[in-house]
Amino acid sequence: MRKRLLLFIALGWVLLLIGDRVDELRVYQGASIAVYVIAIGSIILLTGYSGQISLGHGALMAFGGYVAALCVANASLPLWFAFVMAALVTGIFGGVLGFAAARLSGPYLAGTTLALAVGLPSLANQFSILGGEQGIYLDPGLPPASLGESFSQYKWFFWITTLAALITMFWLANILHSKYGRTWRALRSNDVAAQLCGVHTGRQKVLAFSLSSGLAGLAGALLVLTISTVSPSAFPLSLSFALVTGAVVSGIYDLKGVMLGAVILVVIPEIADSVASRFGDSLKITSTLPGLLVSALLILAVLFTPNGPGEKLHHLRHKRKAHSG
Amino acid sequence: MYKFISSLLIGLSLGAIYSLMSISLVLVWRSTRVVNFAQAGQAIVSTYIAYEVVNRTGSFWLAFVVAILAGALLGAIVDRYFMRPLFRRVASGPIVAIAPVVATLGLLGVLRAVVGFIWGVELKPIAAPVSLDGYSLGSEVLPFAPYNALVIVIVAIVLIVLSLLFQKTNLGLSLRASAYSPEIARLSGVRVNEIRTLGWAIAGAAGAIAGILATPTSYLSPNSLDILLVFGFAAAVIGGLESMVGAVVGGLVLGLGVTFVSNYVSTSLIFPTAFVFLIIILLVRPSGIVSGKRSRRA
Question: What one-character-per-residue DSSP string does A35-87 give?
Fold first, then answer.
């Protein structure tokens, strides 16, 4: 555990140095990558315990984003407290939702979370406190003066999100190696056997879904920080789908691949933009290409690296050794 | 009283469309243990084809037939050339449990994008074959229109055809047998794989009908049927996910519930109502209101 802590601190140091040496756009993208790392991590935590997957983590992110924005805009609470609240409240909401759907085996969780993601905009328009289509403005505040005059807003976002991502990953790595992680893995591979060993399957599944929701809420709050408004259009259905893609590409049972998935999610819109500009930027192409790339990648990942790139590499190395030996 | 009657009728016609979507999900779930999230994508493709036919020929009925055929063909193709290779390839490791969900989700995205490429993302209308203006009862004009009546009649015919197919023909027996117990069906000489593909085709056709019937009262866009997919899923869960009768009952219950809430409380509550229905059913009777089995609790 201490070794892991040192590793994360070193990683943070390296990221800090990188953040100092690249231009503003890359720093901003770095912040987005950190947000996606947390969001994908939350899906891996969820799927790490059972044969279920959430198709609505985008909606849970939105939930967290609204909680944070309401905390800052209406109660003028400090930023860090708003993030903690976002994680907590979304976790509780996830627990309630999970109690209905996550304790059941089968496609119930996938369908219910999909329903949540599809219906979110109408829910946000329902209550006037949520600001309808325009959403709520979240004042991110200025970076502390002690960091110097030239310290930009984007770099401040990068620092906050990266710190949050590092803490989240450290916590995730620990919990997945704790007795909870072992219990969830047992549930995933054989829930009847786990039950015979005294595991309360329903309760564990709801717990995992609730923790995963909390992380999604935190990721949502951080996303809102970087775009400074929370509105239904910031959390479309395609965000939920993109997160699933990111998780599958990362290897859905492997925390180590998380960076890969997050980077891909940030890079895809860029690729789509550059391809679309070659085809003359028609609305048809610019609006459908990102979705096509994400979905195609999802299908390819399931077909060719179903259990993640880590396992595939391992497999290939193994094969080569067998050949040479 | 007018309000009550019109809510009842509108609810029935809405519920009829949900029932069809729900049936197409249930058919695939029973035979393949996959909730086919791509069904909305398949239906959107067939509905856009119908839109094209209406535009070229002006005939809604020709478009209707073409949509059914396209939906059935697409369903068969998805099973034969997408799901089957997927199951062959992804046969081990922890991903197996979620691979179908993930793959159908990816397919949904691809189909939506393809439709967007071909027809663009603007909203497109399909003209209804009969009037969309409500019947008038005395001085009151009901929101219930001839088109809504037509929807109920068409869905009733489809349901009768399906139940005759499943209950009275050998093919229906094979379909039920291979869904219920593929091994035993195979031993008795049923060609389970082919029958399963046929089941996907029937499901695709049902989804296509739901798609084209839902469109004249609103608009067509690459994601306009997502809501229908969600309502179809909710209806299937209300009905227990295993039974076709349950799917129909679930669809009607949901359609009526949603319409009454939107007419008596607030129109913007349509979605929250459906969601609450779904959650309550999951909490109280996860096995659905029709089936008596209690097997899906973890």
Answer: HHHHHHHHHHHHHTTSS---S-HHHHHHHHHHHHHHHHHHH---HHHHHHHHH
Q: Check CB contact under 8 Å for A288 and B97.
A: no
Instruction: Work out the minimum CA distance from A238 to partner chain B, whole angstroms.
Output: 9
Residues B187-223 pLDDT 10s: 988 899 999 999 999 999 999 999 999 999 989 999 8
pLDDT tens digits along B99-135: 888 999 999 999 999 999 899 888 999 988 888 888 8
- For position A185, which CATH number holds? 1.10.3470
Domain, as residue range, for A163: 26-138+151-324
In which domain, by residue range, is B180 found? 19-131+139-224
Within a domain: B275: no
Cα B243 from Cα A147, distance rounded (Å): 64
Structurally, chain B folds into a number of domains equal to 1
Cβ contact A110–B114 (<8 Å):
no
CB contacts < 8 A, A to B, total 170
Cβ neighbors of A12 (< 8 A, separation 6 or more) are A162, A163, A166
Nearest residue on chain B to A301, judged by CA atoms?
B103
Show residues of chain A in contact with B283, CB under 8 Å: 99-100
Does a structural domain hold residue B44? yes
- Write out chain A residues lying below 8 Å of B233, CB-based: 111, 114-115
